[in-house]
Write a structure and sequence with these properties.
4 helices; Herpes Virus-1; alpha+beta; 17% helix
């Protein structure tokens, strides 16, 4: 043993923390929580485990948690999920249609063009700026981003996203995704549809 205490963070150093300028599932320059967060953390979140290792427990937004939206006003821009439309979803290893980069690519859910992330050559961001096509699916982790809302969208709970998410999951992993069960929603109020009896 070297005598130094190992530091373990219960935080993935690449966890996205969005700012108003970050988009398509990417970090803003101030959103990388790794080293800066560890050094700046107060002692209330620090714990020492049985082996004497120091760990920093972060929760919620402090841990890079991003709350995905469960609705989006831009979904009507997506074409209906017909069999023909879903057949247009390309393989997740598709290259960027502009620069042919092989990774970090996103699928435009409006026109089905495949373009690279802002970590590569920013072609998906430029596509949104040029066309207004604001909803994209990451082939890296199958997350869905709305540029106009500047937010992730929950493909598990937004019914309009489920078909394309399922096809992308099948193409990437060879099996259907393990969807969470949906609670019945009262679509008129947007709240959970529990039955409350009034006498």
């Amino acid at each position: 043993s070297s005598g130094k205490k190992n530091r373990r963070l219960l935080l993935h150093s690449d966890s996205p923390r969005m700012s108003s300028t970050a988009g398509a599932g990417e970090h803003s320059s101030s959103s990388r929580p790794g080293k800066e967060r560890e050094e700046g953390a107060d002692d209330s979140n620090r714990k020492v485990d049985d082996e004497g290792d120091l760990s920093l427990e972060l929760y919620g937004a402090e841990a890079g948690w991003v709350e995905a939206r469960t609705s989006c006003p831009h979904l009507p821009a997506m074409p209906a999920a017909s069999a023909d439309e879903l057949a247009r979803v390309p393989a997740p290893d598709s290259q960027c249609s502009r620069c042919h980069h092989p990774s970090e690519n996103w699928l435009c859910l409006i026109c089905k063009d495949v373009l690279c992330s802002r970590f590569i050559n920013k072609h998906m961001l430029y596509h949104y700026q040029e066309t207004g096509h604001c909803i994209a699916l990451s082939f890296s982790d199958l997350s869905v981003w709305c540029f106009a809302c500047d937010s992730y969208l929950d493909a598990q709970s937004i019914l309009e996203l489920r078909p394309v998410y399922e096809v992308a999951h099948l193409l990437k992993f060879g099996e259907r995704p393990p969807f969470r069960s949906l609670e019945v929603l009262d679509l008129s109020s947007g709240q959970n549809g529990g039955s409350s009896s009034s006498s």
